[in-house]
Write a structure and sequence with these properties.
A alpha/beta (480); B alpha/beta (449); C alpha+beta (127); B: 449 residues; 4-stranded antiparallel sheet; 13 helices; C: 127 residues; 7-stranded antiparallel sheet; 3-stranded antiparallel sheet; 4 helices
Chain lengths: 480, 449, 127
């Protein structure tokens, strides 16, 4: 059932009750605050019965496509299956303690944090991690600040960060908020960073290169070791955006490839649910000479006891309240423990098999701008089509398939970034390939139909221009 | 394994189609000497029953739930209706990603639109966004927003802001050539020293950021503060760490506040050892184009039906890149949805009742415990649901230890944050605490005499 | 519309001289590239600009870009109608969609710009 719902405020009726809680035991006489500082009623605030609340959100849920309901090949998002045992374990009441609890009462939680850090160290060969950043972008800014603090402590903070033209928007944005200027470095015709090109861009102002590996074209930056050497010789560092770690987790380790600072996305590679846009978690790993700059608090184990350091002389300081998104970390740890050494390699192997299967199947029908080896995601362009990438994406919706990432990376015209992940069956992928062929065929004969899609979704194409010109950013009671 | 739908024969099929013999060939771009490393030190996979056993053992190592806790200080243990847990566990709400394809994301988008609305109703502000990471980073975003809008580079910070929030603001602004100056609080009243505020405010500042109720639990003179800042044409930025207070105290907008930021964990989000939580922001409409984060707007589809989309994206990193108003991409969307469901369930009446109960429980404690002579409540008026308890005849460590023997975690020792509060603790009361719990605490305190 | 007295820049701005005032806008090509314009950030009247300075900011749903003044001088008027009707730039980029008016400091700056025919050739070169 795809029933559009009125705003919840319009379902509200005076006097309805949705909650049940024991009444207050004390009289209003005890109030010690001046009456002038107390608010009156919250105007137009919802008043619904529990039944109506459940119906409202159940119906809203049914309007969504989700990983649980179907194929969701968003490139660079790694929309893999979210295991349900992760949810059950993260919901154990015993884990949901107050963050200021004395440490002796939460040793289980401190062990979870240190155990997860150990797993990440083994998988990435980085020397230490902070688990506090809340998201990939948060990890990026943390990593940039670590680099700045390190270089500043050597008396040479430097001014610029090199960022490839294929980078995700958070990269330059994070570097900017860490106080750096951004210099864009072009990818070569193979879609990767060229050693010769890098030579031209390296100078004494460069603090670091921010590299996504594999990059947003799904191509492994095969010059990474040489690039790391060149950077180090220049007194610069190598930052790796690990959003695409699903492509080679278990196959190779960033620490072995010369990476100095790395962030990971637990809500991508590590299976925690995307939640409609969060919460995520963006742990940052560093090489050993950078450990002292990691943000506080620092949780560590010594002789079977757990300790937390809240202040550390050279640390960049705190980036997040308390310990980070702890319950997200619990889910990621459950995931790693469920796949273990037997299956951790299979993640990348199946992800890359699936992506290459899609690539070879669609190559006869779509332009592939970069012919290098594909890892976990493939990027096609809409050149030479008589419909746009947007039209194709909207047509996919009518088949119950969530579109791939569109118009990113910017260096490909009408980019279609397709990442199937390892948790899709061959049947699902065959269906996707079939549907794409159908859409492209229809586009040749009846482009107008394709341009009018979607036809079967709860709403049709929405007027984004109107939304941006005439802002309605909250519900208002227009009745009175 | 259950998370890998491909069968071995399907893998062979695909390899044949790709004309390769070995999966390793797909990874040939990775330096050979650095790939396919040894897996020896990685633990073996656990089955579902083994996982449950393992984590139950870990859970047993936590003793916290054996104690009656009065810990607050930015994380508040409130009642969460079962409906919230049930609805948020739906895969259709928890497993999609950012709603870029609006036609198949109306559930998430409408949920966020309604959340934004509820935040504006509670704060009286014109606009909100669809979440930030937490109270501390929201405070930092509030500072950056004020500095961006005012085009100034100095911020005044109340010294009784949550110490972690101060740390985070400092981490963010230290790299950006912004300066911060503190306005001290009066130790006698627990409130911001308004004279100092008047003196130090000048047109070179972008704003003054303060917390109410502040870290010591005291409600600030918000209207007066806003008047002072506005008289010098700088912004008034309020922080709220205990969102439940929004349902009890006059809304920020009525007190002249320009930007309100804070922590909304109190709205249906478990204390969860500190995360994930929910940062929120509300502001006057002049700030709209400078707002950080995702914003959902209402529009129509080709058939004229009402629908929702992410809007004003040109502020954000995926379009403006290094010129974006914030680098935030993924936020805390599911937590915001949790909050919306909580607020819808509690409703007007529930929220008002429960927010009042928080205060009444605290007031009862203050009234009764004041009869004891071995302690002193430092700020006896203008508290919401947290108070500072000075311990007179004991060292704070001994006091806490004695209460732990009675299975009580009394509060957060303030010596970790303020050097002249060596012998005080911060105690929080929510609706979870019953009269008998509060009496138990009072008796235990009495017995430390 | 007769564009004979319009001069164009390589960044797709145009300037039309009326006495000692230069009217500035963006070309039809530019408005097409933007797509539906949703917001225009106008500068303050009285601001003094140098040739090449960013003087206004245009937003569409998916893009945002600065407009650079082809001439130096003081901004004496801004097209306030664009606040509520930014789409005027799309509908009539050379007329109602004008953006700012500048008191010209140095007429020589205009001489090096392209006339309408030269601009068309330039566009043909890049398409």
């Amino acid at each position: 059932m795809n029933k559009l719902q009125k705003p919840i405020f319009e379902k509200s009726r005076k006097g309805k009750i949705g909650y049940s809680f024991s009444p207050t035991e004390f009289s209003d006489d005890l109030i010690t605050i001046d009456k002038k500082k107390l608010r009156e009623d919250i105007k137009d605030f919802p008043q619904l019965s529990e039944v109506e609340v459940v119906r409202h959100y159940t119906n809203l849920a049914q309007l969504n496509h989700s990983v649980d309901s179907g194929f969701y090949p968003l490139g660079s998002c790694t929309m893999k299956y979210n295991p349900k045992i992760n949810e059950k374990i993260a919901n154990f009441e015993e884990f949901s303690t107050h963050p200021y609890s004395p440490h002796k009462f939460v040793e289980g939680n401190l062990e979870i944090i240190t155990t997860f850090e150990e797993w990440l160290k083994k998988i990435t060969a980085m020397a230490a991690f902070t688990l506090t950043p809340s998201a990939g972008a948060h990890g990026e800014i943390t990593g940039m600040m670590i680099i700045k603090k390190y270089l500043s402590s050597k008396g040479d903070p430097r001014k610029t960060i090199l960022i490839p033209d294929s980078a995700h928007g958070t990269n330059p944005s994070s570097a900017h908020f860490a106080g750096y200027e951004i210099i864009e470095i072009p990818s070569n015709k193979d879609g990767i960073i060229d050693v010769e090109t890098l030579k031209e861009y390296l100078n004494e102002d460069v603090a670091a290169l921010m590299m996504t590996n594999p990059n947003t074209l799904g191509i492994f930056e095969k010059n990474i070791c040489k690039i790391s050497e060149m950077l180090h010789k220049n007194g610069s560092l190598l930052y790796m955006d690990g959003a695409n770690m699903n492509a080679f987790m278990g196959i190779a380790r960033p620490g072995d490839l010369g990476v100095d600072v790395l962030h990971l996305n637990l809500h991508k590679t590590f299976s925690t649910p995307h939640g409609g846009g969060g919460p995520g978690s963006g742990p940052v790993g560093v090489a050993s000479y950078l450990i002292k700059y990691l943000p506080t608090p620092i949780v560590y184990k010594k002789d079977n006891n757990y300790f937390v350091k809240y202040h550390e002389e050279k640390s960049i300081g705190r980036v997040k309240n308390f310990y980070g998104n702890f319950l997200v970390i619990v889910k990621a740890l459950t995931y790693l423990m469920s796949i273990g050494k037997e299956y951790i390699r299979k993640v990348a192997e199946d992800a890359v098999l699936n992506a290459n299967y899609i690539r070879k199947s669609l190559e006869p029908f779509l332009e592939l701008p970069y012919k290098s080896k594909t890892l976990h995601e493939v990027v096609f362009s809409d050149n030479n089509l008589n419909v746009t990438t947007l039209d194709i994406a909207k047509s996919l919706l009518d088949y119950g398939i969530h579109p791939f990432t569109i118009y990113f990376p910017l260096i490909v015209h009408g980019a279609m970034m397709i990442e199937p992940t390892e948790t899709e069956s061959k049947e699902t992928i065959d269906e996707f390939i079939d549907v794409m062929k159908k859409i492209l065929e229809k586009a040749k004969n009846d482009p107008e139909y394709i341009k009018g899609a979607p036809y079967t979704t709860p709403v049709s194409r929405l007027d984004e221009v109107l939304a941006a010109r005439k802002h309605i950013l909250k519900w208002e009671n227009l009745g009175e | 394994m259950r998370y890998f739908p491909l069968t071995d024969s399907e893998r062979e099929e695909i390899k044949n189609f790709l004309e390769i013999k070995d999966t390793k060939e797909l990874f040939s771009d990775i330096p050979k000497d650095k790939s396919y490393y040894s897996m020896n030190d990685i633990p073996s996979a656990l089955t579902e029953d083994q996982l449950l056993k393992k984590f139950r053992e870990l859970a047993k190592k936590n003793k916290y739930s054996n104690y009656l806790s009065f810990l607050g200080a930015g994380s508040y243990n409130h009642f969460i209706p079962e409906v919230v847990n049930y609805l948020i566990s739906k895969g259709e709400l928890s497993t999609p990603y950012t709603p870029y394809q609006a036609e198949v994301s109306q559930g998430s988008l409408q949920g966020m639109f309604e959340y934004q609305t509820m935040i504006t109703m509670l704060t009286g502000m014109d606009v909100s966004n669809s979440s930030l990471y937490d109270g501390g980073t929201a405070a930092a975003e509030g500072v950056l927003l004020a500095l961006r809008k005012s085009k100034k580079n100095r911020i005044l910070i109340a010294s009784n802001l949550h110490p972690e929030y101060i740390e985070i603001i400092h981490t963010y602004i230290q790299n950006l050539n912004f300066e911060a100056e503190f306005i001290e609080f009066d130790k006698e009243t627990g409130k911001i020293d308004l004279n100092q505020l008047k003196e130090k405010t000048d047109e070179n500042c972008g704003g003054f950021i303060f917390q109410s109720p502040n870290f010591l639990g005291v409600i600030e003179e918000t209207k007066t503060i806003s008047d002072i800042t506005h008289s010098k044409e700088i912004f008034s930025i309020q922080v709220t760490a205990e969102a439940m207070s929004l349902a009890f105290l006059t809304p920020a907008a009525e007190n002249g506040v320009d930007i309100i930021v804070g922590e909304a964990q109190s709205f249906g989000i478990p204390i969860g050892f500190g995360g994930p939580y929910l940062g929120f922001i509300g502001a006057k409409k002049d700030f709209l184009r400078q707002m950080p984060g995702r914003i959902v707007g209402q529009t129509v589809d080709t058939k004229g039906r009402k629908g929702y989309v992410l809007t004003l994206s040109t502020r954000e990193q995926h379009i403006k890149r290094e010129k974006a108003t914030s680098n935030i991409c993924s936020n805390q969307a599911l937590c915001a949805l949790r909050a919306a469901i909580y607020l819808s369930t509690m409703g007007q009446k529930g929220l008002k009742e429960i927010s009042k109960t928080n205060h009444l429980n605290t007031a009862y404690f203050v009234k009764e415990v004041s009869k004891l002579s071995n302690i002193n409540i430092k700020y006896k008026k203008d508290f919401y649901n947290e108070v500072v308890l000075e311990i007179k005849n004991n060292k704070v460590e001994d006091f806490i230890a004695k209460l732990e023997e009675k299975n009580i975690i009394a509060g957060v020792p303030l010596k970790y944050f303020y050097s002249d509060f060596e012998n005080s603790i911060l105690i929080n009361f929510t609706e979870i605490h019953k009269k008998k719990d509060i009496d138990k605490l009072i008796n235990a305190i009495g017995e430390t005499e | 519309m007769n564009l004979d007295d319009f001069k164009f820049t390589k960044e797709h701005e145009w300037v039309k001289v009326e006495g000692d005032i230069g009217i500035i806008g963006i070309s039809d090509f530019a408005q097409k590239e933007f797509g539906d314009i949703v917001y225009v950030e106008l500068p303050l009247v009285g601001k003094k600009v140098k040739k090449g300075d960013a003087c206004a900011n245009i937003e569409s749903v998916k893009a945002v870009d600065d407009i650079y003044t082809p001439i130096s001088g003081e901004i004496i008027e801004v097209n306030e109608e664009l606040e509520n009707n930014p789409e005027n730039i799309n509908k009539d980029p050379n007329g109602k969609g004008w953006i700012i008016k500048i008191k010209i400091e140095d007429k020589k700056e205009i001489e090096n710009l392209m006339n309408n025919n030269q601009y068309d050739d330039f566009l043909n070169g890049i398409s």
